[in-house]
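agent> step 3/5: call structure_predict on target 'Accessory factor UbiK family protein' (Rhizobium helianthi).
agent> reason: downstream docking stage needs a structural representation; sequence fetched in step 2, passing through unchanged.
tool.input:
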Amino acid sequence: MTTGTNRILDEFARLMTDAAGAAQNVRKEAETAVHAQMERFLNSLDVVKREEFEAVREMAIKARDENDALKARLDALEAKLASQQG
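tool.output (status=ok):
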């Protein structure tokens, strides 16, 4: 009788393992489908990706710094010109 009970328990354990594997595969497929759907949705909204935003932000910071430096040079040149004229 012990052999029969062990066999039933082994079959039950195998069935549960297979069911867990199937459930995990279904979960992965659902996640992939949801991810793809969300990406399509965001693309339709023309939303900028974080990496693109950060790249443009860095470019804007650099341009602002360059403008500040150029303004300082222009102010200095204007002051020098004004002192030579006056």
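agent> step 4/5: record observation. The chain has two domains: 1-47, 48-86.
agent> proceeding.
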